[in-house]
Amino acid sequence: MVTGGGGFIGSHVADSLLAQGARVTVFDNFSTGRREFVPRDDRLRLVEADLLDQKKLDLEMRGVDFVFHMAANADIKDNLKEPRKCIDQNIVATQNVLEAMRAAGAREIAFASTGSVYGESAILPTPEDAPFPVQTSIYATSKVAAEGLLTSYALGFDFRAWIFRFVSLLGPRYTHGHVYDFWRKLRRDPSRLEVLGNGQQQKSYLHVGDCVAAMMTAIDKSRGAIQIYNLGHTDWLKVDDSVKIIVRAMDVSPQIVYTGGERGWVGDSPRILLDTTRITSLGWKPTKSIEESVVETLAFLEAHPAVERRD
Ligand SMILES: NC(=O)c1ccc[n+]([C@@H]2O[C@H](COP(=O)([O-])OP(=O)(O)OC[C@H]3O[C@@H](n4cnc5c(N)ncnc54)[C@H](O)[C@@H]3O)[C@@H](O)[C@H]2O)c1
């Protein structure tokens, strides 16, 4: 089962599983996902439902042996607007998935966590065992709580859990994040671009295809009850440099206006670079540069203007 299989990352996971010959159940309520992202294949069953509906989830979990739990409220920037959303969608929903698995006898789960759990780490690149005593966003807090649920189910009920802490991902079917925000603003007004913060934030990004390949490598090659992996690039990119790539690719020359301050929003970590030694030691490495990934993301957005939200 792929929860969130109608979303950006989950739909690529579903593609990869089908390519490996698996039968796949996509469970998605399409709150942010899109029906056209779900692969069309006889071996895929689409369940349009909410993870908060435990009865439905219990029913659909029957016969499932492995869960990729990708569904979440993935919106880190606006999480303070509706704090409850992260708690319900990211913690309660995860508990529901684990309970449904327990009832159905499914015991293996891969989980989409985030590099944001490290907050503003003093250690860069940040390894998996770095301390994270202070949470800077409700989104990351909810992911830490969900990780805790996974690890305690692994120990308490003999589950095997793979926890993947992603940097920001890029690539086809991308519908949220800074490239989306800049693209959307420039489509509306190519003469002016508002940049949140001072443009000096520097972060690592990863292509979604590389991310899915890394997850599959870790699942194939690692044994043990609890496996935690950072997934990211060894490279990172300043927001200002990202703006340059985007402006060039869109062939516009806007006036750049900074909102100021080191952070783009409350809880934004100005520097994110994860230590990926653990996953690269299994033989995986990124195939695409960050610049290539930004350009490919823009090309996807330009070819699919319907993904633009109307809010
Ligand atoms: N995109 C990134 O850069 C990034 C970085 C780090 C972690 N993550 C995590 O990766 C996962 C996937 O993110 P994404 O970028 O694909 O986001 P997304 O919004 O594109 O996908 C999330 C999917 O989950 C579905 N969903 C949400 N709540 C649901 C519910 N209650 N019941 C059923 N379906 C529900 C949505 O409809 C959507 O299809 C999330 O857990 C996110 O927190 C993403």
SSE topology sketch:
Blueprint (H helix, E strand, L loop, with lengths): L1 E2 L4 H12 L4 E5 L15 E5 L5 H8 L4 E4 L13 H22 L3 E7 L23 H20 L2 E7 L1 E3 L7 H11 L3 E4 L6 E2 L1 E3 H14 L4 E6 L5 E2 H12 L4 E4 L12 E2 L4 H4 L9 H14 L8
Parallel strand pairs: 1-2, 1-4, 2-3, 4-5, 5-6, 6-11, 7-10, 8-13, 9-14
Antiparallel strand pairs: 9-12
Helix pairs in contact: 1-6, 2-3, 3-4, 5-7, 7-9
The chain binds nicotinamide-adenine-dinucleotide.
Would you give an account of this structure?
With 311 residues, the protein is an alpha/beta fold. The protein folds into two domains: 2-169 and 206-231, Rossmann fold, CATH 3.40.50.720; 171-203 and 235-272 and 287-307, UDP-galactose 4-epimerase, domain 1, CATH 3.90.25. It is built from nine helices and 14 strands. It has helices at residues 8-19, 54-61, 83-104, 138-157, 178-188, 208-221, 239-250, 277-280, 290-303, and strands at residues 2-3, 24-28, 44-48, 66-69, 108-114, 160-166, 168-170, 192-195, 202-203, 205-207, 226-231, 237-238, 255-258, 271-272. The strands form four sheets. The protein has a seven-stranded parallel β-sheet with strand order 3-2-1-4-5-6-11, with helices on both faces. The model has no long low-confidence stretch (mean pLDDT 96). It binds nicotinamide-adenine-dinucleotide. Nicotinamide-adenine-dinucleotide binds next to helix 1, helix 3, strand 5 and strand 7.
